[in-house]
Fold:
Amino acid sequence: MRRAFALLRPTAVVRCVQPAAFRPTRVLHIYPQLVRLIVAGGLLVFQAFVVAHNREAQRLREEADGTATGESCSTALMSSSEALHILGMDANLCVPLGEKKDREEATRRFNHLFAIAKNNNNAYLQGKFSAAYRVCVDANWDADENSCSNRGIDSSGTGGEQG
Structure:
């Protein structure tokens, strides 16, 4: 009887072939503890990025508010050793420079370096050299808006004519 019943049944079972991604069988067994660990680690990393983003956004907002109202920036001033190093002076000197010879040497070096930075349109280096000169020699040398053009610094670093 079974044999007769088997003969009445269709011989080929018609099945839909599914791609491997949608097959219901699980190839890799992942333990629930491992899943919890991966999810918790991902959440901790995400939280760290959110906290860092919020701190950076707050710092930028404070900086923008400070510059908009005319207050000084929150960044620290240049250290005396850094200023002396930028101008190529001896690190044992005290700033602001007291001796006339040291002040003239710092001014000569500043004029030369600032002229090179100005010819190359490098605002970053112009700012670095200006800050070093302010710390070492003259704190108010660039107080007015057009001081760089008024000084007449040329590429030779000699200073040029004022006027």
Observations:
- The helical segments are 2-8, 32-68, 80-87, 100-119, 123-136, 147-151.
- The radius of gyration is 36 Å.
- Residues 80-151 form one domain.
- Residues 68-74 have pLDDT under 50 and may be disordered.
